[in-house]
Give the backbone structure.
Amino acid sequence: DAGVTQSPTHLIKTRGQQVTLRCSPKSGHDTVSWYQQALGQGPQFIFQYYEEEERQRGNFPDRFSGHQFPNYSSELNVNALLLGDSALYLCASRDRVVAGELFFGEGSRLTVL
Amino acid sequence: AQKITQTQPGMFVQEKEAVTLDCTYDTSDPSYGLFWYKQPSSGEMIFLIYQGSYDQQNATEGRYSLNFQKARKSANLVISASQLGDSAMYFCAMLSSASKIIFGSGTRLSIRP
């Protein structure tokens, strides 16, 4: 049973570019959430998707957008990249009706030059 | 406002000793969940233990236990018989009834041989 998988694991972009990160949830999970973790800090909640819609959102600008597909996989898009967007981006999945499950992927490390 | 506070930025513990990592939280939600994660230098967020706000007993998972004191709004992680492989960052997180997930700033645990 595969856990949460994310791609790519590492990527380098330049300021102003756009990036798309991908996440496949753990089998049986219908809800995906995304987090930004800057170096030395705790993860910050970006947004959460279920039933193919954004349901909750943290304090992030509209440059951060996402999508959830019918198979529950998800994408995070960041437009007009800034140097400060350099971070580890983590995806987590859970089953909305099951308490106690929130599993993370290994993350995508984005460097913006 | 909801908040997670981890007051210990770093801790050093001798191998085989027990260690307690502190976590306090603030929420007005009657229903919430508390998680602990371990993050080694590789970046992956590894699930350790979960406590629901209505759970009567403290959660345990192998060498991990959660000392849940609801009235004091604390959810400390206890690791018994620490091992060298326990050296990592540890994060406390809360899932609110609004399905937002917030993390503390983390504690860096170092185990001395």
In short: The interface with chain B takes residues 31, 33, 35, 41-45, 48, 55-56, 58, 88, 90, 92, 96, 99-107, 109 of chain A (CB under 8 Å). Chain A is about 0% helix and 50% strand. The mean pLDDT of chain A is 94. Residues 91 and 113 of chain A are 23 Å apart (CA to CA).
